[in-house]
């Protein structure tokens, strides 16, 4: 018995994904003064976790669970904390793109405000190790504030190994200061460059009217962006695109409205069907032979669902399709 219990806690070098949930978006997205809808838009998720002996064995024999080597999920030397921070940042970026697309489509102005640089990961054995953490937001260097991440990088690149810079950053809503001495990077990709040893992305805030809030809690990744944009747009405009239907879907969204490929489409079809979705919007990838759309159609046939699978390449395609739907009786 003790051996069986121990095996349940022993992690294997794999991740297992399985069908997650289909979650209605109206309760988590609120546009001030937004319009109501008769049906609903739903995001779909997969559940991803480290494999143990039992979850690996179950996934091996389950049609709609998938096993991934760690290297396919996490970057080289990426810790669990850094992976989680990266996923949450991808979610934040998808929300910004969704808001921009929806507001521009509705003819509303969109403005961005630069907030600093966001630490994605800290490189081992570089000066930032032990001083900065994934999730920190750096907004000031040597008393200078910047208007873009490029300005930040250009400023640091003008320094020499051995120079010390003062960073002001935010962590858990508290402001901190630290001094870090620059070193040369040791990897071939950054040969000749100096820095503190962090991976970073630009942190910016979007300013729109009416205001919108998107509460995603601990959901990570970029794959809900497309459905966010539809829910936001639907609340901004008077005509109800749901027409009374339960509409699920998935896909990344770019600021230009392009809908991108995601992972786990098979599991998301299963989740949407269990939640009672009647329509599923899937990335078409311009008709590629291994597109999310074709995989979704195949899975829908296998599970015998009546859910309609609709191919989508661009946000405008979805708006056009939904605009032509007949009201549900």
Describe this structure in words.
With 329 residues, the protein is of the alpha+beta class. The chain has 2 domains: 223 residues, Ribosomal Protein S5, domain 2 (2-Layer Sandwich), CATH 3.30.230; 94 residues, Pdz3 Domain, CATH 2.30.42.10. It is 30% helix and 32% strand. It has 9 helices and 17 strands. Strand 14 and strand 15 form a beta hairpin. Helix 4 runs parallel beside helix 6. The model has no long low-confidence stretch (mean pLDDT 90).
Structure summarized in a few sentences:
The chain is an alpha+beta fold. The chain contains nine helices and 17 strands.
Largest sheet geometry: 6 strands, mixed
Strand content: 25-35%
Order of helices and strands: HEEEHEHHEEHEEEEEEHEEEHEHEH
Any idea what the CATH architecture of the largest domain is?
A: 2-Layer Sandwich
User: Average pLDDT across residues?
Assistant: 90
Summed up, the domain count is 2
Helix content estimate = 25-40%
Reading off the top of the CATH hierarchy, the class of the largest domain is best stated as Alpha Beta
| Number of helices, counting only DSSP H or I runs of 4 residues or more | 9
Number of strands: 17
- Return the structural class: alpha+beta
Strand order of the largest sheet: 4-1-3-13-16-17
Shape: globular
GO molecular function, one term: ATP-dependent peptidase activity
Enzyme class: hydrolase
Family: Belongs to the peptidase S16 family.
Organism: Bacillus benzoevorans
């Amino acid at each position: 018995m003790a051996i069986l219990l121990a095996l349940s806690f022993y992690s294997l070098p794999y991740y297992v994904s399985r069908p997650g949930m289909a979650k209605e978006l109206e309760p988590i997205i609120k546009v001030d003064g937004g319009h109501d809808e008769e049906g609903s838009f739903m995001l779909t998720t997969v559940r991803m976790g480290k494999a143990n002996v039992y979850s690996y064995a179950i996934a091996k024999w389950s049609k709609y669970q998938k096993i991934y080597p760690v290297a396919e999920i996490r970057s080289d030397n990426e810790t669990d904390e850094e992976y989680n921070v990266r996923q949450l940042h991808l979610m934040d970026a998808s929300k910004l793109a969704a808001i921009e697309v929806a507001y521009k489509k509705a003819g509303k102005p969109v403005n961005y405000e630069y907030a600093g640089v966001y630490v994605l990961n800290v490189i081992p054995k570089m000066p930032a190790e032990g001083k900065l953490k994934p999730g920190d937001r750096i907004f000031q260097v040597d008393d200078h504030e910047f208007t873009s991440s490029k300005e930040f990088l250009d400023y640091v690149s003008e320094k020499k190994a051995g120079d010390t810079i003062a960073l002001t950053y935010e962590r858990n809503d508290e402001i901190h200061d630290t001094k870090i001495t620059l070193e040369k990077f040791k990897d071939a990709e950054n040969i000749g460059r100096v820095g503190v040893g962090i991976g970073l992305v630009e942190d910016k805030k979007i300013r729109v009217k009416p205001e919108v809030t998107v509460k995603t809690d601990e959901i990570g990744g970029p794959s809900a962006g497309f459905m966010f944009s539809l829910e936001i747009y639907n609340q901004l405009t008077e005509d109800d695109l749901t027409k009374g239907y339960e509409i699920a879907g998935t896909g990344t969204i770019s600021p230009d409205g392009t809908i991108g490929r995601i992972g786990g489409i098979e599991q998301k079809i299963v989740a949407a069907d269990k939640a009672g979705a009647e329509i599923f919007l899937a990335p078409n990838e311009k008709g590629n032979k291994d597109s999310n759309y074709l995989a979704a159609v195949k899975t829908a046939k296998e599970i015998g669902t009546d859910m309609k699978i609709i191919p989508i390449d661009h946000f405008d395609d979805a708006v056009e399709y939904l605009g032509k739907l007949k009201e549900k009786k």
